[in-house]
Amino acid sequence: MRHGSLFSGIGGFDLAAEWMGWENVFHCEWNEFGRKVLNHYWPNAKSYEDITQTDFSIHRGKIDVLTGGFPCQPYSNAGKRLGKEDERHLWPEMLRAIREIRPTYVVGENVRGLVNWSGGLVFEEVCADLEAEGYEVQPFLLPACGKDAPHRRDRIWFVAHYNNRDWEKVRLQTRGQEYVDGIERAGDASDSNSPSLKSKSEPKQRQGEFKRRSFFDLPDNWETFPTEPPICGGNDGLPERMDGISFPKWRNESIKAYGNAIVPQVAFEIFKAIQNLKK
């Protein structure tokens, strides 16, 4: 499988694709710090900077899975929620890239606030735009604690397939909450009082320190991750070496990058469901 990522950050989607054994063909990230991380770990992937200035047509028909955590700041409850009036509303650019690339699958990610911003205007727009391009789309509201992370981190995930006939398989194989037609269906995965979340809230220490993991280890056991590290890589599911090439003066960039990153363990579950369709 061939994977390309947009709004790549420090490579959450790319890492999940690596875990799948997929080829990371290209990434696109405007932030200098993010590009250094991406180019360090995936030097053979083509690197793009500003999505608004990039023509992706050379990849048309050559990408199996295109991903993108398009900027969340316009819809986040932590911001001003300017939505489409915010210059960081870049879904139209991701849609243009989808038109130019025509991938088989699209996986988009954003904050939960996108669902109810302006009565769901942008949420509906994303679904309608994908359908207009010939994709069948299924949105999911999936929390990080659905993969036993020690916190919720709810995110809306758009999973789309071009002329899909096996969509029910993806829906059944994807774990966590499901968001359909504006109705949130509660499940144990997103319950902040669930035993799973409580049991992970105070991770165990081993000989006074947390177990070290190599970069490519898939962290199934969240108990080895601190919940309040100096920078929030551990509890967001990213290995400690993800930004290990950074310089002290870029510590703030590391913190910001982790905060903006997707949780790759959740993307990994979606990717597994997609690959199962190939069997």
Give structural attributes.
279 residues, alpha/beta, Rossmann fold, 7-stranded mixed sheet, two-stranded antiparallel ribbon, 9 helices
Describe the 3D structure.
The protein is α/β, with parallel strands linked by helices and 279 residues long. It has a single domain, classed as 3-Layer(aba) Sandwich (Rossmann fold), CATH 3.40.50. The chain is built from nine helices and nine strands. Strand 4, helix 3 (91-101) and strand 5 form a beta-alpha-beta unit. Helix 1 crosses helix 9 (264-276) and helix 6 runs antiparallel to helix 9. The longest helix has 13 residues, at 264-276.
The CATH topology corresponds to Rossmann fold
* N-to-C SSE string, H for helix and E for strand: EHEHEEHEHHEEHEEHHH
| Amino- and carboxy-terminal Cα gap | 13 Å
Q: Count the helices. How many?
A: 9
- Tally the structural domains: 1
> What is the architecture at the second tier of CATH?
3-Layer(aba) Sandwich
**What is the CATH homology-level superfamily?**
Vaccinia Virus protein VP39
